[in-house]
C-alpha cells in the first residue's frame, strides 16, 4: 500500500526555520586558541601586532572570517604554494599545526580578543597622490579601508605598510591570487595592475595609513 506524502503546514515550516535561525552558535574555545597561538606569537608578536624583523603581518584587529579563510588557504596549499612566495611558504607548516576547523576557529577567536595597534609608518609615499588612487580600492575595501564582509575584503587601515607593499607586488607578479581556488585573491590581481609602479604603491599605502585608527 502506497503511503501518502506528509505535507507540513506552512506555519510549521516557518516555525522550524525560525528555530534553526535562532539556534545558539557554539562558542569558540578561546583558551584552546590561546594555547595554539603560542606558536603564532613567535613571529606575529605577543599581541598579534606583527614584526618587521620576521616579516610577519599584524593579525590583531583583522576580521575573523578573513583570518579563517587565509589559514584554510595556507593549510590547503592555495596560498603560499608559489616558489617565489618565500614568506607565504613559511606559513603553511605553521597552519598545519591547527588540526581541524575547530582549532582554526579557536585560534582566530583568541586573536579577536587582542587589541589592534596602529601600525608604524616605515615607507615614504605621498598620501595626497594616494588618495586619488585609492578611489578604486575603496569600492571593495571601504572609504576608510575598514574592509567589507559582503565583498570579502579585509581591513587594511591597521596593517603594516611594508606588508601591504609586498602583497600588492605579489598580486602584480602572479605570486598570489593565481591559484584556481583562490577566488578572492584572483579579484585582486587586476586591481594591483592599476598601480603602475612602486611609487604609486607607496602613495596609495601612505593614504591607507592616514586612515588608520
UniProtKB/TrEMBL annotation:
<dbReference type="GO" id="GO:0042597">
    <property type="term" value="C:periplasmic space"/>
</dbReference>
<keyword id="KW-0249">Electron transport</keyword>
<feature type="binding site" description="covalent">
    <location>
        <position position="140"/>
    </location>
    <ligand>
        <name>heme c 2</name>
    </ligand>
</feature>
<feature type="domain" description="Cytochrome c">
    <location>
        <begin position="125"/>
        <end position="212"/>
    </location>
</feature>
<protein>
    <recommendedName>
        <fullName>Cytochrome c domain-containing protein</fullName>
    </recommendedName>
</protein>
<feature type="signal peptide">
    <location>
        <begin position="1"/>
        <end position="27"/>
    </location>
</feature>
<feature type="binding site" description="covalent">
    <location>
        <position position="43"/>
    </location>
    <ligand>
        <name>heme c 1</name>
    </ligand>
</feature>
<keyword id="KW-0479">Metal-binding</keyword>
<feature type="binding site" description="axial binding residue">
    <location>
        <position position="44"/>
    </location>
    <ligand>
        <name>heme c 1</name>
    </ligand>
</feature>
<keyword id="KW-0732">Signal</keyword>
<feature type="binding site" description="axial binding residue">
    <location>
        <position position="188"/>
    </location>
    <ligand>
        <name>heme c 2</name>
    </ligand>
</feature>
<keyword id="KW-0574">Periplasm</keyword>
<dbReference type="GO" id="GO:0005506">
    <property type="term" value="F:iron ion binding"/>
</dbReference>
<dbReference type="GO" id="GO:0020037">
    <property type="term" value="F:heme binding"/>
</dbReference>
<dbReference type="InterPro" id="IPR009056">
    <property type="entry name" value="Cyt_c-like_dom"/>
</dbReference>
<dbReference type="Pfam" id="PF00034">
    <property type="entry name" value="Cytochrom_C"/>
</dbReference>
<feature type="binding site" description="covalent">
    <location>
        <position position="137"/>
    </location>
    <ligand>
        <name>heme c 2</name>
    </ligand>
</feature>
<feature type="binding site" description="axial binding residue">
    <location>
        <position position="141"/>
    </location>
    <ligand>
        <name>heme c 2</name>
    </ligand>
</feature>
<dbReference type="InterPro" id="IPR024167">
    <property type="entry name" value="Cytochrome_c4-like"/>
</dbReference>
<keyword id="KW-0408">Iron</keyword>
<dbReference type="GO" id="GO:0009055">
    <property type="term" value="F:electron transfer activity"/>
</dbReference>
<feature type="binding site" description="covalent">
    <location>
        <position position="40"/>
    </location>
    <ligand>
        <name>heme c 1</name>
    </ligand>
</feature>
<feature type="domain" description="Cytochrome c">
    <location>
        <begin position="28"/>
        <end position="115"/>
    </location>
</feature>
<keyword id="KW-0813">Transport</keyword>
<feature type="binding site" description="axial binding residue">
    <location>
        <position position="91"/>
    </location>
    <ligand>
        <name>heme c 1</name>
    </ligand>
</feature>
<dbReference type="InterPro" id="IPR050597">
    <property type="entry name" value="Cytochrome_c_Oxidase_Subunit"/>
</dbReference>
<keyword id="KW-0349">Heme</keyword>
<dbReference type="InterPro" id="IPR036909">
    <property type="entry name" value="Cyt_c-like_dom_sf"/>
</dbReference>
